[in-house]
Amino acid sequence: MTDEEEREALAALVMHLRRRNVAGRRVLAALEGVPRSLFLDARHRGLAYADRAAPIDCGQTVSQPTVVAMMTEALEPGEAHRVLEIGTGSGYQTAILARLVAHVFTVERYRRLSDLAAERFAVLRLANVTRSVADGHDGWAEHAPYDRIMVTAAAPAVPQALVDQLAPDGILVAPVGEQDGVQELVRCRLGPDGLIGERLADVRFVPMVPGVATRL
Ligand code: SAH
Fold first, then answer.
1. Which of 206, 212, 216 to mutate to test the pocket of ligand 1 (most atoms within 8 A of CB)?
2. Dist CA 194 CA 15 (whole Å)
3. Single pTM value for the model
4. Residue of 208, 212, 215, 216 with the most ligand 1 atoms within 8 Å of its CB, for mutation
5. Active site residue 63
6. Domains of the chain
7. Nearest to 128, CA basis, from 81, 190, 166
8. pLDDT tens, position by position, for the chain (216 residues)?
9. I need a labelling partner for 54 at 20 to 30 A (CA). Which of 31, 37, 39, 173 fits?
């Protein structure tokens, strides 16, 4: 694809998301600023501008653009926010968040995925992303609290460490459910009376796996 074809394909995808009404202007502009093809390997690049999930390294997947847009919108990202993301994966969601907030701290259990993602952040000159190879069940206490937390792997329940690292008025968005079942995308808000959750949609995510990956 030429640069121009790429821009047109991306604009068409964003137009499709606008019609589906899954996100507002600010989030759609962020999506339009991130070339999804950069996050896929050559074999799967043909899927870059389809509204479909796509395979990435280490047996993981990058979410469907509709789901990325919906989750980003649900997070209510603000310019001054510090955001924790669990599950860097390809780095696509990270890059979109980085265009919307002050800083993104992102945790991934596969070193290979984290390293590949870092190369992409460099290509896009994103200077406001800090990454770690660790088990996201523990959050990232060093930089807590976070205004927003986004989890992009499914766990049977939201890990308590993440709730503990959420700032007052903070919002956490996560897929919750069993590995083989349907999961629910939930949004939790930390109010004065504690955490209040709401269900947003049925989704399917790869599971959140304990520990740092030893393979690769
Ligand atoms: N947001 C990613 C989607 C990645 S899929 C993207 O835009 O590409 C979910 C990712 O979560 C996978 O890369 C998987 O390795 C990672 N993951 C699963 N369990 C984890 C854990 N306990 N800690 C950190 N990352 C985890």
1. 206
2. 38
3. 0.97
4. 208
5. yes
6. 3-203 (3.40.50.150)
7. 81
8. 888 999 999 999 999 999 999 999 999 999 999 999 999 999 999 999 999 999 999 999 999 999 999 999 999 999 999 999 999 999 999 999 999 999 999 999 999 999 999 999 999 999 999 999 999 999 999 999 999 999 999 999 999 999 999 999 999 999 999 987 889 999 999 999 999 999 999 999 999 999 999 865
9. 173
